[in-house]
Structures are given as structure tokens and as C-alpha cells.
Amino acid sequence: MNTTQPSTFQTILKWLVPILGIIVIGVWMYISPEGALGKLDAIGYAVCHRIDARSFQIDDRQLPLCARCTGEFYAAGVALLFQAFVSGRKSVLPSRGILAVLILFFLAFGIDGVNSYVYLLKQTSGGLEQIPNLYIPNNTLRLFTGSGMGIALASVLFPVINQTIWREPTNDYALNRKTFSILVGLIIVINLLILTDSPIVLYPIAYLSALGTLSLLVLVFMILWMIMMRQDNTFDSLRQLWLPFASGLTLALLLILSIDLLRLTMTGTWSGFPGLG
Fold it and tell me: What is the pTM of this model?
């Protein structure tokens, strides 16, 4: 058990960050587009190119993230929630068999992403004609390869979180073959529903994908905060996590705000990068 007492600097810092968080939230709320979907757009704006033609649409309005990022971040969010319910404090990384599948998901994500990027450059710059495309990219493949990557991220991140937070994590696989199969099946069903283009499906997915993005950033920064403050493996209940969570949220929003301001200054638009239609 870590019994190191926090320094005066750490004590001041741990209260300063939540106060800074209130300021960051206020500034971000002010500069981001109006409305709930506008705020979601501002989250997606920090991590995604938001090219209209590569995004799903609700009527004539694109979702906060492109098809690939929608799949990646909604699936990561769903996978984290799924593991929170079925795995609790289990902290062992997936077995080698499941890891092999996750590596395949990662490779599919990378191959489809590179192929899609080369195709985009050919369309917009007229160059790279000497590099053949493996196939014509489309939003269906972007959705499925993105969601596979989301499952992979969450499957590794969740047990790492448990290893970092809890004083006594459970020494068992966070995902076994049964729960992993259920998770993959659930994501496939949701993907098929997304492809119906029904607003009844796409509205919740808009929220899930953007909030999934924010959740991943918050969790990563929360872990880094606990390590920096020497608080890893010192918690016994969720109620004790309010300050690390507030710190992770503050740092995540600060990153999003910084990227949003930089990109908005460079492009002058909340939409996709100009010239990459």
C-alpha cells in the first residue's frame, strides 16, 4: 500500500485543478456552437477531420464525428460500460486468444484507414496515382473497422484502469470468451442499426460517440493524475474517486479547448477541413 504523504504543492494542485475546470468548462461552453449537438460537434472537432462526405447524416446534418470515429468512440464507450457492469474490478488483460482478435481489429483499422487516406489524397490533390487502392473505401467499412478499434481500446483500457485505481482489484480476466463474444455481437447489431440511417438510432449514437470520446480522454488523464499524485492503488470505493475524476475531466476539456481554438483559428470553421470534401 502506498503511504507516501502528499506534498504541499500536490495539496494545492489537487484543489486548483477542479477550480480551473470550472473556468475551462465556461470558456469551452462560450466558444462552442450553440445547442446540445453543437457541443457534441465541438468534442468531435478536437479529434476528427469531420469531413461531411465521410460522416453519417441526420437529414442534412452530419454527426459530430466521421463514420470511422463514430464507430471507434461509440464502441469504446459501450465496451467500457459493458465491462463496468459485467466485470466489476476484474483487472487481468484479455487472454492471448482474445488479444489476437483485438490485434486483427487493430490491423483492419489501420489498413482501411491508410487505404481511405490514400484515396482521399488522390481525390483532393490529384497525386499519388502510382499508389493503387486496395478497394474503394466507404462508410460501412469505416464504421465496422472503427468499432473494432473501439472494442480493442476499451478491452485493454478497462483492466488497466482497475489495476491503477483499486487497492484490491480482482485477479481475473476483465473479458472472457463469453463476455467478449456478447460484446462483439452487441456492437455488430448496433452497427447494423446505424446503417439504417434512422434518426431514432443516429441521435443516440451522436451522443454516445461524442461522450465516448470525452470518456476515454477523462479516464486516461485520471490515471495519469493518480500516478502523478501517487494515489494509484489507494481507492476502495467510487465515492473516493470524485477528485481524480474532476481532475481528469478538467485536463480532458483543457486539451479539447486548446485543439478547438487552434483548429478554429487555422480554418475558421467548425466543419471539416476546407478542401477535403
Answer: 0.89
